[in-house]
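Fold in tokens:
===
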Amino acid sequence: MAEVTISRIAELLGDEAEYLLEHKCTTIPKEMLHLPGPDFVDRVWKDSDRNPRVLRAMQELFNTGRLAGTGYLSILPVDQGIEHSAGASFAPNPIYFDPENIVKLAIEGGCNAVATTFGVLGAVARKYAHKIPFILKLNHNELLSYPNQYDQVLFARVKDAWNMGCVGVGATVYWGSPESRRQLQEISEAFSYAHELGMVTILWCYLRNSAFKVNGVNHETAADLTGQANHLGVTIEADIIKQKLPTHNGGYKALNTGSSSYGKLDERIYTELSTDHPIDLTRYQVANCYMGRCGLINSGGAAKGKDDLREAVRTAVINKRAGGMGLISGRKAFQRPMKEGVELLHAIQDVYLNPEVTIA
């Protein structure tokens, strides 16, 4: 039974409750989607080129934690010690300088898996690899180079993940950045090898380019651009796509102003395939993940304080109702006392456990 009732979810959503919980999607109908469910591996993946070991690893993910048997995923990602610096990330709760507490939070929080760095997993692999699925994040940005640069480089090897018993690997491509084509080649090769060894692949499909900020609007979270990033990610055989929740639409249009020419667009992206409703914008992201064949998990975003629980539940409601596969939430959980972090993770999971939160 879900601990967070539909009335509690509505209470947390406040003025947006009816807007989000009662919305009917009239763009891409839910009947066209491959929706999460207990039989997802058998129904969606059994006819693919993924070998039996990959299918087994997928099923292990789906069979772990509080969401076991639902087809939904709740993953704890902690790579911020590199991506945002350890001091800035762990100052709110210094216990997470110790890698074991990261894994403990994932277990206590009822997560399907923990996704983190080579060093973190390597420090505790023998104690925990058989207790919760491990996902090794292969590449990272680092903020110690001066001046700061923004590039994802490999910190670990696929074989390292296999040796420590990981069920999957994760990686980031900064689509739109000058380095994206090199990252694309590196990660495509890494994902191919991971599949050969029987591991699931998860791609952080983030957009990164200062030119995407036009007239004060950051189009790195536009639905049309993030949707295309998702489509590139599934093209290199990412099994699961991690993406930021879309905030608006029209990235292609904004970048095709004046004498500039960028990408390709069709007006029906904006008039028929999506609206300005956050569930419809997210459904467009799902559609670009081969209509949900590759699961879309949205990120939980940065910890901001008292509204974190509401924001986490809101993101979960949007993702689920759009046809997504779950949430991957880190800072909102670990930048607070462990008990509160566990409660936040449980609240996210309860959205997916609640049958009254339906597909729009």
Summary: The chain has 16 helices and twelve strands. The mean pLDDT is 95. The first helix runs from residue 6 to 13. Residues 253 and 259 are 12 Å apart (CA to CA).
